[in-house]
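Purpose: get a first structural picture of the assembly so the mutagenesis plan has something to point at.
Setup: two entries, given in the order below. No constraints added.
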Amino acid sequence: MSLRIEHPGLLSTLQDRGRRGLRYLGIPQAGIGCEPWMRFANALLQQPHTSAVIETFEGGLSVSALTPQRLSIVGDVDAQVTRANGTVESINGWRTLCLLSGERLSIKRTGRYRCAVIGVKDLNVSAHFGSVATFAKAGLGGLNGSALSAGDELPVHGSAVLGSEPDAVIDPYLFPGEALGTTQVTLKAVPGPQDDAFTDDALNRFFSHPYRITQDIDRMGARLDGPTLTHRSEAHRDIVSDALLPGSVQVPGVGTPIVMLADANTAGGYPKIATVVSADVALLSVCRPGTTVRFERVGTDAARAHTLAIEQAVDTHSKKVSAMIHTDLDSAQLMSLNLIGGVTNALDPI
Amino acid sequence: MSSADPQPNFRFLNAGDTALIAEFGDTIDKKWVNAVNELRAHITALHAQGKLRGLQETVPTFRSLAIVIDPLLTSVTELRSTLDQYPIPTGGRATAAGYCWRLPVCYDSEFGPDLKAVAAATNLTVDEVIQRHLAGRYQVYTLGFQPGYGFLGDTDERLHLPRRPEPRVKVPAGSVAIAMKLTCVYPWDSPGGWHLLGRCPVSMFDPQASRPTLLFPGDKVRFEPINANDLQALERDKNNGVVNWSQWRERDDESTETRSDPTANDSAQNNPPA
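Result (structure tokens, whole complex):
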């Protein structure tokens, strides 16, 4: 009962919502960069939305079924499926996929985003300190504390019952309120905790000028390029460390910001000009280098309202996906759920 | 801190929709560490009484306590008003006694490449630097930066130095270092700007242990010199995955605290009441 990793590609790891409660020991949250995609991947497979998934960066991931296996693919993916009889099919993301024994899925590229999410029906991996999330630097989570590598076999509960049910395909859906293929995003951010370490001019620049995501982006953070942000004094460039969270916008002495992501260290010594609202960190996590980023200044109440609105939209969409899979793919029902025919892109304006 | 001292003031700083920062000071000072830990104990107690819905965890640092919440369950505004309603009781709480560790360090120049520079900067001989580092009985103030990385202090006043102007790209795991008023053992190969005095062969982090970090906030540490042969033998064990942390407890450690799963230790914060 398992799925074999033939090739991990650039970086593929098992992730779920990450660890809580261990930051006081220096252990970061880790977890999936884009939680909405994880939820869609699990909704496609009719399983709990917090089930661990494979997060894969760029192309190259190749998996083969040792026993029949149902998967889901979420993201702007070009992929190939090699069937048992040797035929090769080209497929895209936003769908389920049944692999029979010996069949293989190969992700060629992740298109307009830097990562994609692969859901695995009934994946059976034990939690490590409360989470399956891989944090390889400290040997935490995943299969054995590591990123996935060639030859790994992911254990799966029981044997997937693969009947005559066809694969399901849904419309692409990047993120509530975002057009697919966007090369420019607006992230809501709350000034602080160290906004007073910067000049007024720096704060205004940060919230009014566009920044670009550089090549220096990984699971830990994204270094941005754009107008330089001036610290109020030399002494404000390097502070006694305080807590870092996903979304913290650190500004080191050079003056360009770094937005921390899921694998953020628990503490850091650069002042933080602002904190990106939690729901929007997910969006930044999937963006490619070169994407234009603007920061919209909000207060804490507006920040929370935004997170609740995104949560509502993601939850609604997940339920629609789930309901669609649950029906016997009756086309009338599908139409009534607004999930086919290109309708989903217009979902849930917020 | 004695009860005669005025209660340290803190101010709230915003950190998005998932956290609120209570900031006490902006220097490395034991009084801030104690104040941060008192607030942390207070919040843990409030949470255990069911008064802090949506609390996920608290993160102590030298300057502040980060109070992390689930924004789907509560808001920063609600958190602030609850904390205003229940001020920290005066008198403070006794900090829970931690373990006392006696960690071996080889101070050969091969492992302490900054010994000479530290001696020059402090007007001490290399041997005096080592003796002063060995004389300290350090408190684990906080952990952070990396899993298992403990900030230990205070060091001997003569050893107080700013960080190196040029951080090293790679400091080897196990390096024992000083900077500011502090000393540490690097758990992992990593970039680092502290002054390297020696090498400790004890792993600071074991992902397979029920409590994965050797150090906990509140623990005490002293260092004990070993020679290069001992270092080599112990590093061989470490590389073979042999971890027996109990052998590094002080012989006279009277702490009876038992530690298992750190998430269980902190269960009040990790399992919010339904």
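The longest strand of chain B covers residues 55-60.
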